[in-house]
Amino acid sequence: MAATMSASSGEINSLATVTVVDIYRRHFHRGASDHHYLTASRWATFVLGRLCGRVRGLGQKSSDR
After folding, report:
1. 20, 42, 51, 64: which one has the fewest Cβ atoms less than 10 Å from its Cβ?
2. What SS3 class is residue 23?
3. Number of other residues whose CB lies within 10 A of the CB of residue 22
């Protein structure tokens, strides 16, 4: 279980980094402070984590049928 959680954590953090650096920073909010991008990354991690959890839950429900 710990290995699964570790892998999931790495994937979610990678998604958050890509979202903030490649999309948010480039297209929406250029020239902000590092603190701003850190806060945005934390929010992206939270939102993407919730989204991945919901998708996983939907997958489990459909396999239970």
Report:
1. 64
2. helix
3. 10
Phi, psi for 31 (deg, rounded to 5): 75, 20
Helix residue ranges, H only, 1-65 = 2-18, 34-63
- With contact defined as beta carbons under 8 Å apart, do 33 and 9 qualify? no
Task: Note every long-range contact of 5-12, with CB atoms under 8 Å and residues 24 or more positions apart, other chains counting.
Answer: 8/52, 11/52, 12/45, 12/48, 12/49, 12/52
pLDDT at position 64, please? 61
Report CA 52 to chain centroid distance, whole Å: 8
The predicted pLDDT at position 39 comes to: 92
Output DSSP code: residue 64.
Answer: T
**pLDDT means over runs of 10, the chain (65 residues):** 74 85 88 91 89 76 64
Residue 41 has which token pair? Answer: 């990354």
